[in-house]
Design goal:
The chain has 447 residues and is mainly alpha-helical. It has one domain (3-437). 83% of the residues lie in helices and 0% in strands. The longest helix is centred in the middle third of the chain and has 37 residues, at 266-302. The radius of gyration is 21 Å and the shape is globular. The model has no long low-confidence stretch (mean pLDDT 88).
Length: 447
């Protein structure tokens, strides 16, 4: 199929993943909106704590991205038992990695004071981090099942689970943040416990779904050996580790920016968090297209159809760029109505509008780089995205943002301009890499 013919099947696969990613992001947005009814300091605490926990947890989630090429290529080659086998090995990785990741979060919390974070924000952020940290374990288990199902193109139930998890998150926030149904009001900390409750539900829901499907379809999952296979665990990690580093570096640069902006006070941090949530919501669409692209590329390569893989990749890039171009226009045209969904504080609104203007500048680059990362992952390439992210964000973007923020007096906008530089650099490198890789004979991850 050509690029034009690939658009429709890509959209069919992508739209449930889009809804899933938006459902995922909606939890963060809802937390911010509900905590925002307390104070700007509470928003800042959730922003700072969530950024730190997210930077750690995405490394663990990234380790499991090695399932994308392995499962999708095995599925394309109709090796169903291999798909089941890789799931079991991913669960072993999740069980071992979770306590290590949680330990990193607990060791980070005492550093907030040393980093010069506003004292009131620090007081609220530390118990929130302690609470949300417990959600890393169910998150890892959920991710293993999710990547396994998505690799086989079974994305519908993942969408249902993530959408319904939002209802649980809202209800749990209402109970824990504000102290309803006889519970003590926990404020920002309650949002952390609500996240734990919703993520536990997500894992259990996918577990039940997989077991029910196996009882009906008998695809051989129950016959899979449950003992760890060191060689295959190593294969998952060899593919997933660069992806984990790349994801952690990307999320980490946003967490680092959040920490730096926290030094500016509650108003800049609150406006930053709200604007970042808006940008993150838009990002969920190309992120979902990235996952769909990885699946389509992997399936095509598993069938030994490199031309179809090439078309799938370019179709995904076209869709991602088109959406993010529209998002940029929305941020420029109607920033204030968007921001008023989160707060009525006039200072936060004014500062947030400026940040949305800057966000519009990196929408196209952000969409292209994440989709390119996905289609390259589907082809088994995870190292170049890691290297480009290290260079683009940490060698260029963050230093430039720091200078603009603190030396040139641009404030939070300076950090955001640094992100423009970093994302644009990464996007260019990955587009060139995809073009180069598709001009050569692809190497299968399952070989």
């Amino acid at each position: 199929m050509g690029v034009r013919q690939e658009i429709k099947p890509m959209l069919v696969l992508a739209w449930p993943v889009v809804v899933s990613e938006l459902g995922w992001m909606a939890m963060v947005v809802v937390d911010t909106m509900m905590v925002g009814r307390i104070s700007a300091e509470a928003i800042g605490a959730v922003s700072l704590g969530a950024a730190a926990v997210h930077a750690v947890s995405v490394f663990g989630v990234g380790l499991l991205l090695g399932l994308d090429p392995l499962v999708s290529q095995a599925w394309g080659a109709r090796r169903i038992r291999d798909c089941h086998h890789f799931l079991v090995q991913a669960l072993y990785i999740s069980i071992v990695a979770s306590p290590l990741l949680m330990g990193l979060v607990w060791s980070y919390a005492p550093l907030l004071e040393l980093l010069g974070v506003d004292r009131q924000i620090e007081i609220l952020a530390r118990p929130y981090m302690d609470a949300i940290n417990w959600s890393i374990f169910p998150l890892m288990l959920f991710t293993a099942f999710r990547r396994y199902l998505q690799g086989m193109g079974r994305v519908g139930w993942v969408m249902v689970v993530l959408v319904s998890a939002n209802l649980i998150n809202v209800a749990a926030n209402w109970v824990f943040i504000f102290g309803n149904l006889g519970f003590t009001a926990m404020g920002a900390t309650g949002a952390g416990w609500a996240t734990f409750a919703s993520r536990t539900y997500m894992f259990l829901a996918l577990l039940v779904y997989v077991l029910v499907c196996e009882s009906r379809l008998a695809t051989g999952l129950k016959k899979i050996t449950l003992s760890p296979a060191v060689d295959d665990i190593r294969r998952i990690i060899n593919l997933g580790f660069p992806a984990a580093i790349q994801t952690a570096l990307e999320v980490g640069v946003f967490a680092a920016g959040t920490t730096l902006i926290a030094k500016l006070g509650a108003i800049p941090l609150a406006s930053h968090q709200i604007a970042l949530n808006c940008a993150a919501v838009a990002f969920m669409v190309p992120l979902a297209i990235s996952s769909a692209g990885a699946i389509r590329v992997g399936h095509a390569l598993g069938r030994e159809c490199p031309n179809e893989a090439r078309s799938a990749g370019w179709a995904a890039l076209l869709l991602g760029a088109s959406f993010m171009g529209c998002a940029a226009v929305v941020f420029v045209m109607v920033p204030e109505p968007i921001l008023r969904m989160f707060t009525v504080n006039t200072e936060v609104l004014a500062a947030g509008a400026t940040l949305l203007y800057v966000a519009a500048l990196f929408q196209l680059s952000d969409g292209l780089q994440v989709v390119a990362t996905g289609v390259l992952r589907g082809a088994g390439e995870t190292r170049i995205p890691m290297i480009s992210t290290l260079f683009g964000h940490w060698a260029l973007g963050l230093p430039i943002g720091y200078l603009l923020c603190f030396q040139w007096g641009w404030g939070a906008s300076g950090i955001w301009v640094g992100w423009v530089v970093g994302l644009t650099t990464v996007a260019v490198v990955l587009l060139v890499t995809w073009h180069w890789k598709m001009g050569r004979k692809p190497h299968l991850a399952t070989d």
